[in-house]
UniProtKB/TrEMBL annotation:
Protein name as annotated: 23S rRNA (Uracil(1939)-C(5))-methyltransferase RlmD
All residue ranges annotated as the TRAM domain in the record: 8-66
Binding of S-adenosyl-L-methionine, residues: 292, 321, 342, 390
UniProt family annotation: Belongs to the class I-like SAM-binding methyltransferase superfamily. RNA M5U methyltransferase family.
Key word Iron-sulfur present: yes
Protein keywords: 4Fe-4S, Iron, Iron-sulfur, Metal-binding, Methyltransferase, S-adenosyl-L-methionine, Transferase
Pfam family, one: tRNA_U5-meth_tr
Residues the record marks as active site: 417
Organism whose genome encodes this protein: Alkalicoccus saliphilus
InterPro entries (alphabetical): MeTrfase_TrmA_AS (IPR030390), NA-bd_OB-fold (IPR012340), SAM-dependent_MTases_sf (IPR029063), TRAM_dom (IPR002792), U5_MeTrfase_fam (IPR010280)
BP GO terms, sorted: rRNA base methylation
Keyword Transport: no
MF GO annotations: 4 iron, 4 sulfur cluster binding; rRNA (uridine-C5-)-methyltransferase activity
Length: 464
């Protein structure tokens, strides 16, 4: 039979709309004549007049014409760039409401993709920050030119218009200082700015990373070529204004690509890495090394994973998708043995160095995919009691899922940045005999719609 469903909403049509929930990008979601409507900026519980700006057979996108009844959580976003920048989506919602909505995003995903009754589950409230500002340790600001002035910032959502940002209130203040000084020096020395449309110009991106607990900081200038004629003058000016900077490096990215970094990195001044400390562990971070962006919340996230792992000091633990080994090293003091793997060789090398630096000698890291390395270890007779996974947004690879269901570790601790793939993977693990014991949302990125979660799955014990 043909699908007889008609498009009931016309582009430009105005209609009243009650916002039922928050969508994954922080937008309001409502229903008009049973058709789903997504409205950026609208908040759950609000009654608005909406204008349809895009319609398709499956959904409509709208904009707010008028708010008839505002959410009690609605506030004035404190950042002057909020409407234009696209970095934060829900600054206009009070922080305690944000934490509730993030838990709700997880609930929605589990209701949609699993049959698990959430009422009986240990489904915890979102772990938030006491002061949810100035939490980011790194920024990547695209350089641009506007009316003869050097600018740096982020692109407006869905456009190639750059918003020049002098101050970002979710970043460490030193990052603003470094970015503004670099903009000024680039302006004074007339350093040419990269134009992505013409694929011309030198300075592409200003990347700054700060060690929150060490105070060390690094500037990375991403440039389109190695040749840097103003280098000496640039460094002289920079050192005058930032005499305590620990590391200045240049990364060369000659490609026409939206990716920020290229393959070649050159140290211009100071060290090639900066130090950071997370509680009892220290890490050395090179320009391209992955490191969690919110150090205060990282400690809470990793502690949630450690608690879920329920270690006694004897277990063999896998840190799958280990990056620079941070989770594995974090739990190592309570594990018998730790093994981790990641597809990025430089991250694995960093993990090995981080283990040595922290005197952890019962952790082994290997380069390779989780889906190939994990079954090999099992085949070699090394059986994991606990597996911690922290996959990319796409979730667990099918082959890894098969290995888990075949080798049946006692506990699986799933650290996830994507509620949908988490819920889908939990369904598969449940079908394979695992029970979802607890679900802990953690807010790693206040004022954005992103939510991280730690799920604990346990294998029912065999009856004797
Ligand atoms: C969300 S990050 C986790 C990083 C780390 N656990 C942390 O907290 O810093 C995901 C990691 O998975 C790695 N990765 C992606 N696909 C992979 C695969 N098939 N096997 C192993 N690692 C993979 C990426 O290189 C990245 O380091």
């Amino acid at each position: 039979m043909k699908d007889t469903k008609q498009v009931t909403i016309q582009k430009g049509q105005r209609f009243p709309l009650t916002i039922k929930r928050m969508g994954i990008d922080g937008e309001g979601v409502g229903f008009f004549k049973r058709q789903v409507v997504f409205v950026p900026g609208a908040l759950p519980g609000e009654e608005i007049v909406c204008e349809a700006v895009k319609v398709s057979p499956k959904f409509a996108a709208g904009k707010i014409v008028k708010i008839r009844r505002a959410s009690e959580g609605r506030i004035k976003a404190p950042c002057p760039y909020f409407e234009k920048c696209g970095g934060c989506q829900i600054q206009h919602l009070s922080y305690d409401h944000q934490l509730k909505e993030k838990k709700d995003l997880l609930r929605q995903a589990f209701e949609r993709y699993t049959k698990i009754p959430l009422n009986n589950l240990d489904f915890r409230d979102t772990i938030g920050m006491e002061n949810p500002w100035r939490y980011r340790n790194k920024s990547q600001m695209q350089a641009g030119m506007k009316n003869g002035k050097v600018t740096a910032g982020l692109y407006e959502p869905g456009s190639n218009r750059l918003t020049d940002i002098d101050e970002c209130i979710v970043q460490h203040p030193q990052i603003d200082k470094v970015t503004n000084i670099v903009k000024q020096i680039a302006q004074d020395l007339k350093i040419s700015i990269y134009d992505s449309k013409k694929h011309k110009g030198f300075l592409r991106t200003i990347v700054t990373r700060v060690g929150f607990n060490t105070g060390e900081y690094q500037l990375v200038l991403v440039t389109s070529s190695k040749d840097f004629p103003e280098k000496d003058l640039f460094l002289k000016e920079l050192k005058q204004r930032l005499p305590d900077i620990n590391s200045v490096v240049q990364n060369v990215n000659p490609e026409k690509t939206p990716l920020v970094f290229g393959d070649e990195t050159i140290v211009l001044d100071g060290e090639d890495q900066i130090m950071e400390q997370l509680d009892h562990l220290t890490f050395k971070l090179s320009a391209r090394a992955f490191f969690q962006l919110n150090p205060e919340q990282t400690i809470k996230l990793y502690n949630a994973a450690k608690d879920a792992a329920g270690l006694t000091g004897r277990e063999k633990v896998v840190d799958a998708y280990c990056g620079t080994g941070t989770i594995g090293l974090w739990i190592a003091d309570r594990a018998g043995e730790v093994r981790g793997m990641d597809i990025i060789d430089s991250a694995v090398k960093d993990a090995e160095k981080n283990a040595v630096r922290n005197n952890i000698n019962h952790a082994l890291f290997e380069t390779g995919s989780a889906e190939t390395v994990m079954p090999r270890w099992e085949k070699e007779g090394w059986h994991a009691d606990v597996v911690i996974v922290d996959p990319p947004r796409t979730g667990l690879d099918k082959e890894l899922m098969k290995t888990l269901l075949k080798t049946k570790p006692e506990r699986i601790v799933y650290v996830s940045c994507n509620p949908s793939t988490l819920a889908k993977n939990v369904t598969e693990l449940s079908a394979g005999g695992y029970t979802l014991e607890s679900l802990q949302p953690v807010d790693m990125f206040p004022h954005t719609s992103q939510v991280e979660a730690v799920a604990l799955l346990i294998r029912p014990r065999k009856k004797k």
